[in-house]
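FAQ: What does the model actually see?

It sees only this:
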Amino acid sequence: MLALTGKLTEAKMIWPMGRIKQSIKVDGRECWTLFDTGARNSCVIPSVAQNLKTSKLAHAYRTALGAEVKQTDTAAILDAEIEGHPISTHALVLENIGKDEDGRPIEILFGALAMQL
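And it is asked to produce this:
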């Protein structure tokens, strides 16, 4: 599970969903990330995926995100660093994840399955 400390200056807790937003590093690049316990899967946008190992899925995968159902046929291995700690998980590559409550584009959505690692 992701341990949160007082060191998070950009993190913002949103109730009641329990979502946290902060930058994490992917291949040395800061990426705006939404940690969403209400989402099962993790997702990345193509500009993040270009720095990751990707693969085509045998079948298109559909996932509900917000009020839409999105589809992809590409997955990625998300190797990242959160507050200096390495993490690795699978992520779906989606053209657009959406924006957070402040209107900032989300580059990575970190779902519940990844938080259980």
